[in-house]
Amino acid sequence: MDSLPPAKRRRESKDGETEASTLSPVVIFAHGAGAPSSSDWMQRWKNMIKEALRAVDVVTFDYPYMSAKKKAPPKAEKLVEFHSNFVKETATKYPGHPLILAGKSMGSRVGCMVASMKDINVSAVVCLGYPLKGSNGAVRDETLLQLTVPTMFVQGSKDGLCPLEKLETTRKKMKAPNELHVIDGGDHSFKIGKKHLQANNSTQDEVEDVAVLAIAAFISRSLEG
């Protein structure tokens, strides 16, 4: 299997010459419920993802409720139209490039809904802290079970919104090829306590670097098909 990032893979042309692959992905990165795309967390992960995937671009946006300064977002289903329109607009700007939908928490859930739409063509979905449990504690797996595109989960082991055993049960029922990278000791935003890091002789940056490399490897395999 080719282990190089998507943008660095090469293919042989008919006359035997090697030419650059056109498979550099474009990532559309959606924010979570409580912080906009300009937040430090989103900007840090945007930069890490762009570098690791050798992406031609990582595009972010804010859902309309953010500019309206509403305290709470509407239901995820009400954000699908705005999200899908943004995906379509981005696709027209980058013809020929695979589209990857990434999202933080709520943004990943809406992204999965968009990826299941018939008129949307994406190559993979990356879920950073997927909110599998709803506010009432019920497991919300319907969206994931409708997916057919390759899906990557990055989850903190201490994320109360996504108990790993419940996610494992859901993953087994999913039609879509899917993988999971666990950030040991991480919360919903992957933050790890100092004692845990010291016990494992690690740092927050090192742990996140490993997670991003896992995402890059997953995307590379998905684009190879």
Automatic annotation (TrEMBL):
Q: Which residues belong to any copy of the KANL3/Tex30 alpha/beta hydrolase-like domain? A: 26-219
Which domain of life does the protein's organism represent?
Eukaryota
The record's Pfam families line, in alphabetical order, gives: Abhydrolase_11 (PF20408)
Region feature Disordered, mapped onto this chain: 1-21
User: What PANTHER family would the database entry show?
Assistant: TESTIS DEVELOPMENT PROTEIN PRTD (PTHR13136), TESTIS-EXPRESSED PROTEIN 30 (PTHR13136:SF11)
In Swiss-Prot or TrEMBL terms, this protein is called KANL3/Tex30 alpha/beta hydrolase-like domain-containing protein
Originating organism: Glycine max
Q: Which gene specifies this protein's sequence?
A: LOC100527322
